[in-house]
Amino acid sequence: MLAGRRILLGLSGGIACYRSAELVRLLREAGAEVRCIMTRAAGKFITPLTMEALSGAPVGEALFSCTTDHRMGHIELARWADLLVIAPATADLMAKLAAGVADDLLTTVALVCERPLLLAPAMNRSMWQAAATQRNVARLRADGAHISGPEAGALACGEEGPGRMRTPSALLEEIVTLCTPQRLRGSRWVVTTGPTWERWDDVRILTSRASGRLGAHIAGEAARYGAEVTLIAGPGTPSVEGVDTRAVESAREMLRAALEETAGGCDLFLAAAAVADYRVARPHAGKLKRGTAEAPTLQLERNPDIVATVAASGATRPRRVVAFAAEAVGDDPQTALAEGWRKLTAKQADAIVVNDIADMGAAGHDRLWWLTAQDAPRPITGGSKQATARAIVQRILDQWPPCTEQHRDQTDGIDHAAD
Question: Does 157 qualify as catalytic in the annotation?
Answer without folding.
Answer: yes
